[in-house]
Design a protein that fits this description.
binds arginine, elongated, 18 helices, two-stranded parallel sheet, two-stranded antiparallel ribbon, mainly alpha
Amino acid sequence: MTNETVSDTAPTVNSLWGGRFASGPDAVMERINASIDFDKRLAAQDIAGSMAHARMLSAQGIIEQADADAIVDGLERIGLAIAEGRFDFSRSLEDIHMNVESALAADIGAAAGRLHTARSRNDQVATDFRLWVRDAIDRLDHGLKELQAALIGQAERHADTIMPGFTHLQSAQPVTFGHHMMAYVEMIGRDRSRAVDCRKRLNECPLGAAALAGTPFPIDRGMTAAALGFDGPTRNSLDSVSDRDFAIEYLNTVSITAMHLSRLAEELVIWTSDAFRFVRLSDGYTTGSSIMPQKRNPDAAELSRAKAGRIFGHLIGLLTVMKGLPLAYQKDMQEDKEPVFDADDSIGLMVAAMTGMIGDLTANPEAMRQAVSAGFPTATDLADWLVRVAGLPFREAHHVTGRVVRLAEETGAKLEDVPLAAMRDIDDRITEDVYAVLTVDASVASRTSLGGTAPVRVREAVADARERYL
Ligand code: ARG
């Protein structure tokens, strides 16, 4: 991102399109119209697109080779100036496209005027924005891969660490902390594959659609598409300049990712609370309170939880901007960029914070084990044993187990501490063997079905995930 300021000059007739205008725009008109304050983030893509276009124009004999060379060299210098923060953006030049073109004219003179042959800002901005979103997808994929690596690392460390598994946030059945970490690895794996899908669909080049109808110049759209790393040119000029579905799809992908990360964030908030103490975040990812010296607040997790909200807002925002727009380009579409830029900033921070928090956290197996023994987490194991060994139908087994649980509750015992005689009073098909399935360790170890929480399966899942994702 560049952080140059944008300067305001007294509005004058625009030198790039002002031929038919006698006076410049009102100051308010200039402010509502200008996009340079945000679309300067497209500078690198705009310059790459213009270079590809200039080279194609000369390869096709549409402009002189010498003019194309001067244009490309000039664009190179402008790109460097922008990257180094030495460029004066001007609001009266509206947007990144005209800021660059006007700087090119100042640098190389008349030849700059040939660059805009056979193109329009409409196909130009559609191209720049696709390139930008493509880079954003690649950044997202890379960040998510690192988050998966951090989760997989914790999963491996804690393949045997038993914690309560919850439904309704009530202790349900014991699972391992490693298994819980691996659940997020799978969610993020699907997020990454959604990003890859979205990248495939967006990777067609609109350049050459010109304003909306194509151009009479003998351009080579395949050449510019290839130079910019697209799979090929888009097929319909009207569609090329007027759809932003790729940006919406990106926001959708980011929204689902943010939804997933907000759940992990929420779990970190719960797990770090005094009531749980399942994990401790590192000092680097914790803040103190200015009044309560004992506090270690999980602010990064809370803010990640919250940022999901603004990202969802951007998705709905852009859908609403695009809804009902007639073909082809409408200026409304200039409002496509800020939501995407902010979503990229927000998800980037979320992913980085989550990777740091997960990588650095210390799990507390004692607290997890203490919590797991509350709430009869092996009741299902007792019912399953009654079905498997004693041959009861599951519904009957469920009922018998319910009675054993009530007895344990009344006597303040864990299931594995209820005496055999007392259990046999409830159902005499219960034998000594039942105790083998009533501990949490036995319960977890028995869940060896594919995708289950048994430590052997978690270790396999870790190895498999390393293979598939890292
Ligand atoms: N700044 C404009 C945008 O972002 C560029 C395209 C302008 N095209 C036009 N015909 N005014 O959409």
